[in-house]
Amino acid sequence: MAVKNYILVCGGTACESSKATEIFNALTSEAEAQGVADEVQIVKTGCFGFCEKGPIVKILPEEAFYVQVVPEDAKEIISESIVKGRMVKRLLYVDEKEQNKDGFDIENIKFYQKQVRIVLRNCGFIDPEKIDEYIAREGYAALEKVLFDMSPDDVINELKESGLRGRGGAGFPTWMKWNFSKQVVSDQKYIVCNADEGDPGAYMDRSTLEGDPHSVLEAMTIAGYAVGADKGVIYIRAEYPLAIERLEIAIAQARDYGLLGNDILGSGFNFDFEIRLGAGAFVCGEETALLRSIEGGRGMPTPKPPFPAVEGLWGKPTVINNVETWANIPMIIIKGGEWFRSIGTERSSGTKVFALTGKIANSGLVEVPMGTTLREIVFDIGGGIKDGKAFKAVQTGGPSGGVITSEFLDTPIDFDQLTAIGSMMGSGGMIVMDEDDCIVNITKFYQDFCVDESCGKCAPCRIGTRKLYDILDKISKGKGTHKDLENLEVIGNAMKKAALCGLGQTAPNPILSTLKYFREEYLEHIDQKICKAGKCKDLVQFTIDPEKCIGCTVCARKCPVKCISGERKLPHLIDQAECTKCGECFASCKFGAISKR
Amino acid sequence: MAKMTLEELRKLRDSKKGELDKRDTEGKSIHIIIGMGTCGIAAGAKGSLDAFLDEIEKNKIKNVTVKQTGCMGLCYVEPTVEVKVPGMPDTIYGNVNVETARKIIKEHVLGGKLVDNHIFDRPAADIVKK
Amino acid sequence: MSTVDIKINGRPISVPAGTSILKAAKLAGSKIPTLCYHSDLEPWAACGICVVKIEGNPRMARACSTLVTEGQNYITNDPEIHTIRKTVIELTLADHPQECLTCARNLSCELQRLASEYGIREIPFDRNVKRLPKDESTPSIVLDPSKCIQCGRCAQVCQQLQDVWALEFIGRGEGTRLMPVSGLLLNDSPCIKCGQCSAHCPVGAIYEKDETAQLMDAIMDKSKHVAVQMAPAVRVAIGEAFNMAPGEIVTGKIYAALRRLGVDAVFDTNFSADLTIMEEGSEFVERVVNGKGALPQLTSCCPAWTDYMEKYYPDMIPNFSTAKSPMMMQGAITKTYYAENKGIAPKDIYSVAIMPCTAKKFERIRDENMQSSGVDDVDLVLTTRELARLIKTAGVDFANLEPEECDSPIGAYTGAGTIFGVTGGVMEAAVRSAYYLITKEELADVNIEAVRGMDGVKTGVVDIKGTKVKVAVAHGMANVKAVLDEIRVAKEAGAEPPYHFVEVMACRGGCIAGGGQPYGTEDEVRDQRIAGLYKDDEQSTIRCSHQNPDITKIYADYLEAPLSKKSHHLLHTHYTPRKVYQK
Q: For C477-490, how does the pLDDT look when each residue is reduced to its tens digit (9 = 90+)?
């Protein structure tokens, strides 16, 4: 008899530790006992996320999603789900708020609604190199609708209704940019896609372009129609060769189909593209610097106003949005601004893609409605902290953002909430830190990045970033003073106000934010000269307890700089002057004789 | 293909949609869809792809198509592969290295059984079809 | 023009639409400190000093680059703004060498002034001064990148005003440098030595090559007869170094001061400006009346311009007037005519030129034609700034000096000679004499208004008794391109040239705003200096070069006639194409 059902038992670390193997065994023997062993296959799977409600068992093809399953449930699962083909209702996951709802509907399982994929709707579904597959999934239906059923004003109104805000960082209302541009009378206008994704740890734009290039092309063409532009420029990092290749294929295919070029679909509207490669300077993600770079100049920001929407590329009105913003647009046109507004929070509608990295069990690209809490992202979707360590904070917004501490785990994440707690959305990098991460060290990392990526034009940023870094470096070496802490704030505040562009204005954010939430940790480095996380090497010391050391010589042999001495069977000694703090000795000692401070 | 008119685009969409739907419901063929974003490729998706093709060739399986797609978002288990076999649930496998790819052909495609320890879940519902 | 009603610190004011906050505040009597801003340039918005608050806006705006908007109230100073500005100055100072005492810009440095105004007594941040080698490759300008504050003015001047592109931003972040393109030495770059970078640098990072010691040595050397000439533009600018108003004519005081320094003879370049008109004017008559030579004729008295032309427009060489610049003519006749008169060997004359220009230091040695006397015709060029320093160190009370007269016979000048220092002046002087040379009649009104003023390109038609002479005047190197391209197009098409005579001066406003003039040159100052030269012209009893009796005499005694063989040997030169990049 053929297999009819599949029982998936989550084998993720968290579920495993809460008896997934026992459940697996119980289910297997129950299936035998109830005589359905041939009809059902029981498999262990990778982590489903949602570990908080683990262990999780899923029945296919019914998609029944059982949570907090214990081995004792095996009998009922087999008898009900497999033998009788019914749900074990008490095990089904129902969101607390919807407990009264009766019946089972996969679409209503809250877990699946934690992620809503608008931007990433086609990623993982279509072959990005085949325009037909994009078209089959409502591709170019939005363009069709715009060209034949909507006026430029209708398009902008739909966008206004949607409440879409720019996903590049600052969250400026997209319709306003378009509208500014539309209102300017000019012989030439441009539509630009900012694909110069530069935040460390952010890669949502790359994935979107690689997985669904047509969505961006379609959106930019729509914008061209709305504001009266016939030329689109995609500014993309040269480090993204696959995305570039797929964009080129997509453009060629769209031209071939007459979805680009002159007289698109016989509408009389013309639009075409050019791809410009960026050399990877972070500052070129800043729109004015990006435009200068396209023009062949040095990527340095210029003062705003004039805003690019009015005076942009080659001095002409230019709508510039980032990849994620663009990818939202076709669905807004197809499903309507009201639909989009129904997702997310009041002032931040729609979804946000986050690149979840760091000390997280399930790193990955997640797209969640605005207003999702950090707890849901980290613990439900991301599967919690790696190796069961304690959550410390999440860094959002990359070098422009700040930290979110555990006290804000339940804050709904949107543009304004993040700003209110001293971080920012940024492009959506989300780096999870655990107890082993040192705040001073991580902040120093970001500052180092800013020192390197400052374009050098404005004094507050060029000099300020360096001064901030130098102070952090001093603190990380135990040479910091209270005056240094004060200077961090003085310089940081001056940069916020006096730096020319977003890069410099936000570069002190990681410092100012961590000074607010982790001041104690800075003070530990300064006053006690300790780094509890053990990340600031100059403050870490490994010592051998002569009482515990039996003289096995393992540490001395492991030491890469040979700074451990001692006779066999006698206590060993570490030469602190030579020690590079690599920690090899600490890891190799079987007797707990080496301590780390 | 010559430049399309509006009518032609609509016709094309309907026919292609039909093809996709057919695949989903009646399922005349087996589909193996490999996540080939930079992340997948970096994690070894090209090797997996070759393994799939090699195994299909060796076993002379005729009704399988292998194609690429973008990133599914499951970065922690790249390379990721979706396998659609008629009569079996659509399955997303993670950590599909060469060895696992061969196993998927033998156990899942030929044997009708899911492969242990590599199944992951699609992270969200499909809004386009809703 | 439409106006907008705004408030500056709560006080209502109406200003023209399109006014920056900085200018509006100035109109309202509130000074906003600046560092990278210069009125000659588009706001670059780099330094971060001019930040102001816009009421109701949490962010600060840069006053230099933000235009006023109707109804806004701009706060130009409060304790928070003061703190931010002070911190930015302190940050800038932390990376600056602070060698004020030995700096070329001591007491004229804009950063030093800010530090003084903000009462900065210590730098609260760790110092981080990067030592970089000086670039002394050109004969004109010294680059000291260690002092550079990356304000960007020099690159903007070089690129926007001069269209030369010798200086550029290189590197990024803290490694950002303003330096010759591709990291070349300045002398190997497209640099034309105009020195506008040095005139615009707010600190001591780019300055004229100081050669004052050479003059002192020559004066000390009893075997040398030190003969000094002074350019037209110097007389209306040097007074500024002694707290006099721009444009004040101090010709006689400079003659007197030079004698106090111990020089042996004082001449005036204005004399040879008149001589230049005779040669260049006669050359023009040859071209336009007798059809000998290419049209239009281009003036050649600006050495930065000739350098630019040889690099960027070598196809225009046939159009260039072969007449040397007044400075080189003066040097040549000093070491021949004057030397013979005085019975001094040319090698024993030390010929010095006081110039508003750094490129003149280069022109002196540009090729072998600059040695028509057999030795260097000009031995030393000092800029106005250098002379001012010498006068100060000599303890001369310049402002109260009794004016003196110039030495004879190569010193007396006409109004036409003096206006050589202003844009349009060479053209005006040439027209005054060309009219006579062509018609043998004097022009009724010698004021040629069409070529005066600050428009970047001025064109007009001069009617010389039926001969319609089309003229164009361009100043500020970037403005030249349009005129030259127009000529090129006509030339390539074999068409009638659009102009007959074109005057070019590399610096905006002409020599009065040359790269060697006193600091603080802006359009307001240019206007005053220009007015000074026109006043000098009007006050002159003789206003046409050909009427200068000493000019008549030198032709009678020595040169025979304009364009004579002797004139050609001493007063004319030729040009060769040069590579834009020397390496």
A: 999 999 999 999 99
